[in-house]
């Protein structure tokens, strides 16, 4: 690796908002065969918005939103923020929660007005022994359109569903296309549910989806991909993604992401544009060619 080629490559990247933090990053980007992309905040804008509120027969929309908003007000999860914002807009975020418990990768639990309220994904509902029969049809319908479905249970019974949409970034599909054109495999890695993830992957032309991954397991999934001998880059934005960014041969952080992700990455995309992933790989390849 000649210092001149590295300087040129690094400079070219910097001009385009692609910041290589080390020379190794340039070389590895040239050799990348698989790009793993986090869904929320990386392929999508990370600006979730409530689109649907569905309740069980004996629950009103207002009751559901009051209970759920009280729990989610204690959470820092982006989905929780979307739910609280929506409830606030209707003046339904006035209740207080007690005994709040965050369940990473699952959801949250707290007591509100004497009720035990559980808010989260299917795995959490199953863990809590919630019977979802009445709401299963609606849940599947929402997930099939790419919505993230948040399940709410009150005192051990399914009370309702909140559908949340997070639009793909404008250039995500184009980025996947360019990566494929470079002969690079693209994988989506997410904690979200399988059906939701598959729908969004389909919209973006991604053929491999690894969904319902717990925050602590993302790095292990990257390691599994590396076990086949492939050079793997991981693109992420969240605190959740940091171990996977460290595990990958090349860690790529979205510039708008969390500090931890940016600190851990080998490469930072200052414009938070997925199209800069293929750009980085091309700069790496160009640099490597000059180094030979
Ligand atoms: P990701 O950001 O990749 O979706 P997380 O591990 O943060 O991953 O969350 C995984 C899933 O757990 C979310 O998609 C959601 O279904 C559920 N979840 C986590 N925290 C909450 C919360 N506070 N409220 C509702 N659902 C939650
Ligand atoms: Mg994310």
TrEMBL record:
It is found in: Cell membrane. It comes from the Bacteria. Belongs to the cation transport ATPase (P-type) (TC 3.A.3) family. Type IB subfamily. This is Heavy metal translocating P-type ATPase. It comes from Streptomyces chiangmaiensis. The chain holds residues 485 to 776 of 860 of the full protein.
